[in-house]
Amino acid sequence: MGGDHAPYVVVEGALDALRQTANRFEVILVGDKNAITTELQKYPGSSQSVRIEHAAEVVNFDDDALAPVRTKKQSSIAVGLQLHKSGEADAFVSAGHTGAVMSASTLLLGRIEGVGRPTIAATLPSEKGYCLLTDAGTNVDCRPQHLREFGIMASIFAEEILHYPKPRIGLLSFGEEKNKGNELTLEAYKLLEQSGLNFIGNIEGRDILKGNVQVVVCDGFVGNVVLKFAEGMVELLRVRLKMYAKVSLWNKIRIAFAYGTLKKVLKEFDYQEYGGVPLLGVNGVTIIGHGKSSAKAIKNMILKAEEMVIKQVNIKIQHALAT
After folding, report:
1. CATH classification (class only), 8-115+281-322
2. pTM of this prediction?
């Protein structure tokens, strides 16, 4: 029931994921049974490949982040995570209230042994592929050891899911020199240096999109500002292109000729391609999607969740933290 366009895009995306994978896994649709059944009726034969788990309540975007564990224990978020906790489901996917999904995942699933704080890792395109930005907004105030944990968890995700062998890790600061930064980054630098990761040192904001690193480590305050700024730049580019086209017929023709290339470039910044972001550090697999998620985004979220389960990302994180 999560997201601006639920439940119809969620049902459509789930069925697309099953169709693409020849029904190799089961999807449990959690929410209002009548609403979900109505949507499934639009797809003849679809009810055989999914299961419905009724949830009487919905966490709205103006609800408190702790609503699923305090006031709305029968919400689709709470019921879905309980299914995951009990082992009835192997992963949980939602485009609903981000704070509620994070809080409920942490409290209901618990943390992986050795993890102080779970983290969201957002995927950004770069000149040389993709990079992970972590933390992207989960933890505003961090300690140095938290940044070390973020680096370890994101490194494993980058290796297993983004297919980067021995990913390069960079600590976001305002200078490349080892002695540049605030108290948090100076202490985190020491821990990352001793972590056994492929840590290359400090990087600056301009290095994020250059592709010099595959993992960018920072606290959630800085990370969320960077992420929202990047989203804003993409929208600015779209607006500027429209403004350019309106100036003259000749400009419209130029844009028309370049449309294919521009569409391909902007596609790499489209959140629908990544589906959602993983909440690393919880004792389970939680994928959080954008509130405006389309069916395509939902499909990709489900496929990412399946890949994390198959590749046992959590087990590898626990082993890495222990060693």
Report:
1. alpha beta
2. 0.89
